[in-house]
């Protein structure tokens, strides 16, 4: 006597196979979306690094604060500007760097803001720089005991 699968067993097997295919397909789409998201994030990081390099390469204080813009490799518009504040140390500046990343579809991506300290002698005001240097020299002399204030 030949035995075969019943109709109910075949339907249950097909349902299990379909459910497994749906789960695996969803997982595959999640992996593809994650790769795409990581690639976009990498491109954003590259654009921000390039804009920061433009800021740090600018020798003029006013032009550095004004900022600039450029078109990235994938056709997006990137704008940047900086707020530069002097510190109590000569030639040392506190920089608040803002980079606005555009998108190819016209929408805007999040704005990246970074704060860092940079040594840039060309950005210094000569009068303020000499005053800060004199104050530093006075503090050093006081610490060494040469100047009693």
How much strand? 15-25%
Biggest pleated-sheet summary: 4 strands, antiparallel
Q: Could you say which structural class the secondary elements and strand pairing correspond to?
A: alpha+beta
Percent of residues in helical segments? 40-55%
What attributes does this structure have?
elongated; 4 strands; single chain; alpha+beta
Structure description:
This protein has one domain (7-144). 51% of the residues lie in helices and 25% in strands. The radius of gyration is 30 Å and the shape is elongated. A hairpin with a 5-residue loop joins strand 3 (92-102) and strand 4. Strands 1-2-3-4 form a four-stranded antiparallel sheet. The termini are far apart. With 149 residues, the protein is of the alpha+beta class. The protein has helices at 7-57, 61-66, 126-144, and strands spanning 68-71, 77-86, 92-102, 108-119. It has three helices and four strands, in the order ααββββα. The model has no long low-confidence stretch (mean pLDDT 87).
Short description:
This protein has 149 residues and is an alpha+beta fold. The chain contains 3 helices and 4 strands, in the order ααββββα.
SSE order and pairing:
Elements: H1 7-57, H2 61-66, E1 68-71, E2 77-86, E3 92-102, E4 108-119, H3 126-144
Antiparallel strand pairs: 1-2, 2-3, 3-4
